[in-house]
Every structure is written in C-alpha cells, then in structure tokens.
Design brief:
Oligomer: heterodimer
Radius of gyration of chain A: 24 Å
Largest sheet of chain A: 2 strands, antiparallel
CATH class of the largest domain in chain B: Alpha Beta
Number of strands of chain A: 4
Order of helices and strands of chain A: EEHHEEHHHHHHHHHH
Largest sheet of chain B: 9 strands, mixed
Mean pLDDT of chain B: 87
Strand order of the largest sheet of chain A: 1-2
Number of helices of chain A: 12
Radius of gyration of chain B: 22 Å
CATH architecture of the largest domain in chain B: 3-Layer(aba) Sandwich
CATH superfamily of the largest domain in chain B: Periplasmic binding protein-like II
Strand content of chain B: 15-25%
Mean pLDDT of chain A: 87
Order of helices and strands of chain B: HEHEHEHEEHEHEHEEEHEHH
Distance between the termini of chain A: 38 Å
Largest interface: A-B, 30 and 28 residues
Strand content of chain A: under 5%
Chain lengths: 301, 267
C-alpha cells in the first residue's frame, strides 16, 4: 500500500515537477507571509514607541497622570486604569451572562430551543461596534445619567456595552467546549446518583475548563481592544475614575482620538501607548494560560 | 495540477488588476480636509460648486484643524481647513486664505437659568475652579465640562480667546466634533461646552459673554469678543483646481450662502 506522502514526479516535457512538494511550498509561503506581516507590525510599533518610553522614563510614562502631549508631558496612568476598569467590568458582565447561557444551552435546553438561540447569539457577534456605541449613547447614557447620577458617560456604560459585545464570543466558544465533554463523563456521574446541576458544576465544567478559559481570553481580547464604541460612551476624561459612574479614557480611545493629528513626539507617544496595550494583553493572556495549565495538570481525570 | 496552478495565477492577476483605479476622472478630485467646524459649510459650498460642473469633484472630509494642516503638508489634501489662526511656524509653511469668520459660542442646556457670564468666569469654569452652577448664579447643580480633543481648531481658539495660559480641567469630557458636543449639552442640564456659533441650533442656549449677546450683528461688528477665522490653507501656491474652488468660495454668492448659514462673511 502506497501512502500519499510519497512524492510522485510528474514529467512535463523535460521538467520534473513534484506536485506535492510544490503545493506544500506555496501553502507554507502563504502562511509565513501572514505571520511575517504580523511580526512586521509588531516590530514597527516597538520601533516607533520604545525610544520615547526610554526617553521619558518608563516609570514616568506608565505612572504619571499628566497627559498634555502638546506640552511634552506623556503620562498614561489614567488610561491604563481606564482600560483595566472597563475591561474588568465588561468581563464581570460577559462571563456571568455568557457562561450561564452556554451552560443552559448545553445542559438544560431542549435541542429545538438550542437550534433557535445559538444562531441568534452568533448573529449578535456580527453587529458592528459602532451600532453598539450608538445605542449606548442614545439609550444607555441618558438612562444612567437620569437614574444613577453622574454624566452618564461612565465606566458603567462602557462596561455594559463591551460586556454585550464580548458575550457572543464567550458563549459560542464555551458552548463548543462544553459540548466536547465526552458523554461518558455525564452518564457516569448521573449513574453515580448526582443531579443534573451537580454533574454540571462538578464534572462538566471542570472537564471543559481549558476551553472555557480560551473563551474568556478571547472575550477579554475583544473587550480590551474595542475602540469606537468606547469613545462614544466613556467620556474620555484624563482622570483615574473613582467610581463606576465616573467618566474614563481607555488606551485604545486615546490612540484613536489623537492619532489623526499627532506629529513628532506626540505621535511616538501614541505608538508607545500601543506598545503598552500590547504588553498588557500579552501579560493577561500568559497569566490565564499559566493558570489554566497549572490546574489542568493537577486535577485532570 | 497544471490547470489548478494556471487558474490560481489567473485569479491573482485578476485581483491585482482590480487594485488599480481605472476611472478616467481619477485626476479630477480636489480633496479638502480639516476642521469639523468648517466641514458642514465646506460641504455646502462643495455641493454648489460641483453642481456647476467645473470638470472635477470637490471632496470634503473632517478630522480636525490640525489634521487638516498636516494633510495639506503631506499632500493628502490640496486644501486644509483650519478654524484657528496659524501658529508662527505653520504660517511660514503655508499660504492661507480667510474664507469667513465664526463666533465661538459658550453653550448650555436650555433649562439653565444663566444668560450671561464674564470671560474670567468662563475661564474659571473650564479650569475646574467653579464646580457648582450656584457659584455663578445658577441652580444648585454640579458643573459638567465638555471640551474638544487637543487637535481641534475650536479648542485651540477657545484656549487662546478664553483660557490663555490656564489649562482646561482634566475632568472635562472630551468629544470629537461640534455635533457630539451639541448632542451632549442638549440633553444634560448640568453641561457647558463651546462650539462654533454658526452651528448652534434652537435646542441650545448660547451665553452672552461680558454682557454681549452672541448675535450676528455683535459678531460682525466685533463687539462679541470670541471670534475666530475660518482658513483654507495650501502648502504652496494653490493648484488650478484649488484656486478655482477658493475663488468660488470668496465670490459674492458663496459668501452670501455662508452669511445665511450663520457665519460672518469676510466682505
């Protein structure tokens, strides 16, 4: 029996073309070009942004609250705090709602209902972020302003909008993770006398843990990187928010608001903001992966 | 196999072909970019101008005054729109054409009982020194400041005309355009912001400054103190297309249009 990996030289006149290897080479080249594009972007951002961080001093850049770029002051602490606050709030909303939704859809819903709900949630993921921002400004912000106080443009408004945007991602990936748990686990648990809910939180969730963590990381990536919707509902003040009703400016909004006209050092400072964002995302992802690997190593069945 | 390779190559060739703009009037666009204050008026003028079939199309975009200046510098746009005076370094590099003058209005919610403020009161408000409306004779409400982003010509004009060397408070909510400022102030009784006088609608209240109400007459005569120029800037002598558009904008019917829309014409 011959296998498909044995190269079959094909004769075309005097040229011997190895069809298999040719296709492999082309596909590898395409994959490498995508990766190299990503690498080049990363290198460019670091090249533009790192010098000014070093010149201003990393401590002053990251820990100072003075963002007056036209006067030469580049401190992005309020924006870092803003991004963290807004992402944390968004995660609270999207994880509780998204994970619960995924659990209900896979463990407790009749299949006909699932066939209706799951596509609807996936449809939500396709709505452009500007639409969410617009609805936030038109409906959510006045609601918060009139009933909870403050200007309405706030950490709360941003968290709600971002939470709703990250929700479909978390739900979809969690559903896939939960559905991948072998039926034998569930049947075994029930055979031992556990109730549906006990099975769910003691067996299924633990087995699907790494998939759920992947869902959370993806959702977090979406929340921390979102720009347009946040600019519209966050208020964009250059101050560390002291309550969830305070306005806030995120790292992404900072870049988007000022990139249009920034020049010289100001522009490099915005690239440096991009570098900071990059590093924050790397740190968060690594933490999440390390955390999941630790637990899986100890408790996997 | 050969057929697949040939088809792939043909597909790539097609994509490359489609990347180029084959329209015959590709060279017939005049890009005008910059101040969001000037933008709606420039769009009206462009529509009038394009309607006269001049042989090319005028395309107007926003982005803010400083973005406009940079676009003119880089050649991205032939005309940059700027709603503030050029700085010394900038003035040396560009040719500027003043196409109109505009008042800078300090706007509050319609329900705000205040009708007039002095310039130093406005300065104190925006510096964050006054935090409650009752300190200037209004209701017992906190003051919410609305400002524009740093590259905005409106903000620069405001900084120069009102704030001087005092910084605008960090707690001010930053919005990206006159429209966004208007929306916010329209719905928030605590809010105060600044915007182009020509764009203030009936749903906002523009305050009198130093006792002078922001009417067209007061602005034209110069009694209303907050006036700024609307400029078209080009990097060197304007090209034929740019010259044609600028001449149109400075002509009587265009200036008349601007006057009707709430600006101060320069003739």
């Amino acid at each position: 029996m011959t296998t498909a990996s044995i190269p079959v030289p094909v004769e075309r006149g005097r040229l011997k073309v190895d069809a298999d290897r040719a296709v492999r080479a082309v596909l590898t080249a395409i994959a490498l070009s995508a990766l190299s594009g990503l690498l080049l972007i990363t290198l460019f951002i670091f090249k533009e942004g790192l010098p000014i961080v070093l010149r201003v001093g990393p401590a002053r850049f990251l820990l100072s609250s003075d963002w007056y770029p036209l006067e030469g002051h580049f401190g992005i602490l309020p924006m870092i705090a803003g991004s963290m606050a807004v992402t944390a709030g968004a995660m609270v909303i999207s994880i509780t709602l998204g994970l619960s939704c995924a659990i209900v859809l896979t463990q407790f819903c009749p299949p006909r209902l699932v066939a209706v709900i799951k596509p609807s949630i996936e449809l939500l993921a396709g709505i452009p972020s500007v639409v969410y921002g617009f609805m936030g400004v038109a409906i959510l912000v006045p609601l918060i302003r009139d009933h909870l106080g403050g200007p309405g443009l706030s950490v709360l408004a941003s968290s709600i909008v971002l939470g709703v945007m990250a929700l479909p991602t978390i739900t979809s990936v969690s559903v896939d993770a939960l559905q991948a748990v072998p039926r034998s686990y569930i049947e075994g648990s029930i055979a031992l006398g556990a109730t549906s809910w006990q099975t769910t939180h003691m067996v299924v969730l633990k087995a699907a843990r790494s998939g759920i963590l992947a869902a959370i990381i993806l959702g977090m990536g979406r929340a921390i990187g979102e720009t347009m919707a946040v600019i519209m509902v966050a208020g964009n003040t250059i101050e560390i928010p002291r309550s969830i009703l305070d306005p806030v400016r995120t790292l992404t909004s900072n870049i988007a608001l000022e990139m249009g006209y920034a020049a010289g050092d100001h522009r490099r400072a915005l690239f440096a903001t991009g570098v900071t964002l990059f590093l924050i995302i790397m740190i968060l992802n690594s933490l999440a992966l390390w955390f999941s690997r630790r637990r899986v190593g100890r408790g996997s069945a | 196999m050969m057929r697949t390779v040939l088809l792939t190559l043909a597909g790539i060739a097609l994509l490359v072909f489609l990347c180029f703009d084959w329209r015959s009037n590709r060279h017939g666009v005049l890009n005008v970019l910059g101040s969001t204050s000037i933008q709606p008026f420039a769009e009206m003028l462009a529509q009038e101008f394009n309607g006269r079939e001049p042989g090319f199309v005028v395309d107007v975009q926003g982005g803010g005054s400083t973005a406009g200046i940079q676009a003119a510098m880089n050649g991205v746009a032939e005309i940059g729109m700027c709603s503030r005076n050029l700085k010394q370094e900038e003035a040396a590099l560009f040719r500027q054409f003043e196409i109109a003058r505009d008042g800078l209005a300090i706007v509050v919610h319609r329900s705000n009982p205040i009708e007039s403020l002095t310039r130093s009161q406005v300065r104190a408000l925006f510096a964050g020194e006054i935090t409650n409306w009752k300190e200037v004779g209004g209701d017992n409400r906190e003051v919410r400041l609305i400002t524009r982003e740093e590259g905005s010509g409106t903000r620069e004009a405001f900084q120069k005309l009102v704030m001087g060397s005092t910084r605008i408070s960090r707690r001010a909510l930053t919005q990206e355009s006159n429209g966004a400022v208007s929306e916010l102030v329209k719905h928030d009784p605590c809010a105060v912001g600044y915007m182009s006088l020509g764009l203030v609608g009936a749903d906002l209240k523009a305050l009198a400054i130093d006792g002078v109400a922001p009417t067209m007459d007061a602005a034209k005569s110069g009694r209303y103190p907050l006036i700024r120029p609307f400029l078209f800037v080009t990097r060197s002598d304007p090209s034929e297309k740019a010259r044609a558009f600028i001449d149109f904008v400075l002509s009587a019917p265009a200036q008349d249009l601007l006057r009707r829309e709430g600006l101060i014409p320069i003739r």
